[in-house]
Amino acid sequence: NAVLPPLAVMMPARFKSTLPPPSSSSASLSSSATPDKSNKKDDGTTAAAPPTLMQRMRAFPQGVKELYRDCMLYRHIQDAADTPINAWTQTGVPRRAFQQQRQLRADVSAMLPLILLYIPPIVGFIPPLLAAFCPRQVLTRHFHNDFEIRAYAEQESRQRMASYEGLAQCIPMSSPHDAVRLYRTVFAASADHDRVRSVQALSRDHLIHLSLSIGIHQHLPHWMSTTLNQSSPSWYLRQHIARVGQMVTQDDAILLQEGYDNLTDIEVMDACLMRGLPIDASMRESLRDHLETIAAVRQEAELDEAFRLFTLHLAPLRAAWQRRTS
Predict the structure, then answer these.
(1) Looking at residue 19, what is its pLDDT?
(2) pLDDT confidence of residue 156
(3) pLDDT class for 90, splitting at 50, 70, 90?
(4) Where is this region: Disordered (predicted)?
């Protein structure tokens, strides 16, 4: 029977990092950022800017090795969690390890075709070239430095926020700041609007705006992600929305049980991005307020599909309402 080492020892390096401060403008990755002394790479340098094309191509093999190490860590977590006696028996797998497994599954799915191309000698030069010219579109965080992780998250957040107003127009509401009232009047079983009680009942326009707000294809440029969402079949959008709703609701429950004050900067950023909260200097406070709101609604809500839809709508509706009233 395996006994797990302390979780901090098992954490991938990117979970331990301290992010650089938010950029002062919405400029591209070429904009400068204030260096953070605590934001060090393994070689002791500060990641205050994206790497050059040549640096990224040379670093590609190291990223593949890091991805492989994470796969071994994933297997270790899975094996240890399945044993009758281990450090997690009483409370189950901690949220940090659970999130690491979930993110790695997504990373491997995204990177597997590129890594397979990297193996054959004839086409092995293609992945480094793609890594150099399309880092956000084709690479995962194993191949990004901390500056890029923050900058790409800000870009994705801005792309999502562009769809919030359209999503708000699909929901009859007065003010989403009273979250309990919003749930009662729109999502609860006693509400008059049955069309938001299940994913199957959502209109085509509603599906498109909701899928954009939760980040389907958001690693692509805005025009491309919008086109892909508009051309995707409704069954695909419904399937993806249902999966994300289940994931967010589950993560809310774990964070409310374990607490969220000890999350690292990157973990807070990921949690905010997952819920549609803004990525800025106050994102830790935004996450705390959001989870407190979810906890208040959970006290009277049925934890069903309608509640999962409510969790996906809450942050976008609040942001859209704030824009209207500001």
Answers:
(1) 54
(2) 86
(3) low
(4) 14-53
Q: Establish if 29 belongs to a structural domain.
A: no
At residue 1, the pLDDT reads 41
Q: Give the confidence band of 154 by pLDDT, cuts at 50, 70, 90.
A: confident
CA-wise closest residue to 309 among 212, 253, 244 = 244
pLDDT(248) > 90: yes
Q: How far apart are CA 210 and CA 216, in angstroms?
A: 9
169 with 124, same domain: the answer is no
113: helix, strand or coil:
helix
Mean pLDDT, residues 312-322 taken together: 88
State whether 82 and 125 are in the same domain: yes
Ordered alpha helix ranges (H), the chain: 7-10, 13-16, 53-82, 95-118, 126-133, 135-138, 146-161, 164-168, 179-182, 204-213, 222-231, 234-258, 265-275, 283-298, 305-325
Residues 115 and 260 occupy one common structural domain: no
Q: Is the CA virtual torsion 60, 61, 66, 67 positive or negative?
A: positive
Contact partners, residue 240, CB within 8 Å, separation at least 6: 211, 214, 216
Structure tokens at 193: 């609007």
Tokens (6 digits) for 285? 């406070």
Residue 136 lies in a domain: yes
Which domain-ending residue is among 100, 119, 144? 144
Same domain, 320 and 174: yes
Q: Is the same domain home to 112 and 189?
A: no
Instruction: Quick: pLDDT tens for 198-211.
Output: 888 888 999 999 99
pLDDT of residue 27: 39
Indicate the number of domains in the chain: 2
Same domain? 174 vs 55: no
Sequence-distant (6+) residues with CB within 8 A of 200 are 238
Q: Which domain holds residue 297?
A: 159-325
Residue 196 included in any domain: yes
Q: Is the pLDDT of residue 59 over 80?
A: no
pLDDT band at 61 (very low <50, low <70, confident <90, very high): confident
